[in-house]
Write a structure and sequence with these properties.
Elements lengths: L2 H14 L12 E4 L8 E8 L4 E4 L4 E6 L9 E6 L1 E3 L3 E5 L4 E3 L1 E6 L2 E6 L8
Antiparallel strand pairs: 1-2, 1-7, 2-3, 3-6, 4-5, 7-8, 9-10
The structure holds zinc ion.
The site of zinc ion (ZN) has 8 residues, from loops.
């Protein structure tokens, strides 16, 4: 690999780690703000940090074509959640009753997420 290729790789790696701590975490309640499921509210099942994507319960349903297996003797189509880009979901604020941007505040060395709009603690 030449020096240039290495530089490129480093740049890409930097980009990947730009958001090492996503505001969205597993079991958060979030609202989808883009795509077919715009407006839907659901629980975060999985956060794929390196890909900056999340899996939200009941949203972005896709059909997976499964081969017959012991777990799934029928095979065929299985409906399951697809991933969403993390920028397409917002942490749900109970007070505002909708998804909103949050900022992180540090108090006593502990991080809390605060709704930008109403200032209430959001998870
Ligand atoms: Zn709020």
């Amino acid at each position: 690999m030449g020096a240039r290729g290495f530089k490129k790789l480093k740049a890409r790696r930097r980009a990947e780690f730009k958001h090492t701590t996503p505001v969205i975490r597993k079991d958060d309640k979030v609202q989808v703000i883009a795509g077919d499921d715009k407006g839907k509210v659901g629980r975060v099942l999985r956060v794929l940090v390196s890909r900056e994507r999340v899996v939200v319960e009941g949203t972005n349903m896709i059909f997976r074509h499964m081969k017959r297996s012991q777990q799934n003797p029928q095979g065929g189509r299985v409906e399951r959640e697809g991933t969403l880009h993390i920028s397409n979901v917002l942490l749900f604020c109970e007070k505002c009753n909708k998804g909103g941007r949050v900022r992180t505040e540090v108090a006593d060395g502990k991080k809390t997420r605060v709704c930008v709009k109403c200032g209430s603690k959001a998870g």
